[in-house]
TrEMBL record:
Native organism: Rhodocollybia butyracea
Active-site residues, record numbering mapped to chain: Y114, K186
Record-level GO cellular component terms: cytosol; mitochondrion
Transmembrane segments: none
Domain Malic enzyme NAD-binding: 282-548
MF (Gene Ontology): malate dehydrogenase (decarboxylating) (NAD+) activity; metal ion binding; NAD binding
Binding site for a divalent metal cation: E257, D258, D281
Family, per entry: Belongs to the malic enzymes family.
Name recorded for this polypeptide: Malic enzyme
Co-factor binding comment: Divalent metal cations. Prefers magnesium or manganese.
Amino acid sequence: MANTLQTVRKSILTHSQSQSVRVALRGAAILNQPRFNKGTAFTAKEREIFGLRGRLPSRVNSLDEQCERAYAQLKTRDTPIRMNTFLHSMKDQNWVLYYSLVAKHLKELLPIIYTPTQGEAIAEYSHLFRRSEGIYLTFNAADKMEEDFLEQTRGRDIDLIVCSDAEAILGIGDQGVGVRAICTAKSALYSLIGGMDPARCLPISLDVGTDNQKLLEDPLYVGWQHKRVRGQEYDEFVDKFVQLVRKHYPHSLLHFEDFGVTNAYKILSRYKESHAVFNDDIQGTGAVTLACTMAAIGVTRTKLPDQRIVVFGAGSAGMGITKQLRDAMVATDGISEQEANSKFYLIDRYGLITERVEHTHGVRDDVKAYVRPDSEWTGVAHDANAEISLLEVIKKIKPTVLIGCSTRPGAFTKEAIEAMAEGCERPIIFPLSNPDRLVEVTPADANEWTKGKALLATGSPFPPAKMPNGKDYIIAECNNALIYPGLGFGAILSKSRHLSESMIVAGARRLAALSPALEDPDNALLPDLGHAPAVNFEVAVAVAEQAIEEGSAGVDWTKEEVRERAKAKTWVPVYPDLVYDEAGMK
């Protein structure tokens, strides 16, 4: 499988040759533009044409030489956050060098530019702030939103917009305008491993205030220091933004990130039929978990509807996973939605979500279809008003799949994991909470407590677990980065009117087909993150093919043309040949 993915990547790189780009900048102006800056890689001819001969040392470096020097500089940084800020500074100066360096050391540096290090960068955003990137749309300037939007996008072709209101950043909560750091990271990953031109990507902060008291009292906070706006005013602000995107960039993908669970579902539901929109916390997490589950049941030689699935944590991630698995059962196995719903057992802070819990505490609309009848649980708890615990659920229903997205470290106890192993031959256990300090159970413990029987995946990177036979069991990282850039690229490539559930399932199915465990059942359930660019290319092809097949694509070519069209569209970090465009100068 690794050889197949390497062949795919080589094919993309071979197809993506350096192209000529016309530039109307000279001297300091071109050096200060990260899209065009080459630093010491400017050729002698380019230095003469662009007035750079006296601004650069005489030696012309290759991109590989620049990467070698930059990597050595990076390794002098002694903490992940210092490495993070170094790389972001490089990105502000030279896009090609930044993306090329990270691509060369992808598995090592992905945790630095993304989770878990980016969480610290978000929390310290105002104190680390150096320069802006993208657009900040603030509630107290809503009347100027279109003017501000157009001022920053004039003359640009935009394929992708990544936006957030920062209410619910995974693991760290409300961080106000600091969410810009996750929007830029998500956008960067679309380019780094999704093949999208960074010049056509745009991160946007929707600053509607914050309820984080620490930020409200911080004199260095750079956002709007006001309590978070809610209700009708909030809805109107978001709608105004979405309508701007629809008006000026109707074929773009609008990626929603880290919205609070109530708003996340409401916004996704409101706009998913009128524009290509995507919520990574709901759909991305759901899609990669679906792919991981498909790979696991390929090992157990069962089907999705055969599973009894416990989801521990009913927030946006947990419900996104539940809905994605449910929809896949309906789409691929032809069972009814009601029957598919019956396969799930959701547990939140009040225990198993039953009719009693719904009556006593209330549940969100997206949870109602999964409420378990009280009659199923008569006699399980000694006290009729007591919560029904995870262990009690496991002992009664003998689940085949246990998924954790609760951010409650250690919630999957030894007794619970041992009960899982007693109930089925190869228990599928996915403790997905991240960062790693919040994981429900460590893979090493889950592997030991099941005597090596468990099929495991986590949301953060973990070292291999030792099997009883002494073999290392590679822990699959159920990371959205393995699928969301490909889902987005596929939708953009096909100019789809929306990102449908069937397109997402098609992408997940293609990812599952690349599972190393299908060749060796004791291997990882998902490909290594080092292969993420090739994996996402395959996902994008599957998504675009599905869009054409179902008639939602806005292109006039066939499924058979998709792969070559995708290669032609894929951006790779190589220096273009720059041509001075004197006519473009004012």
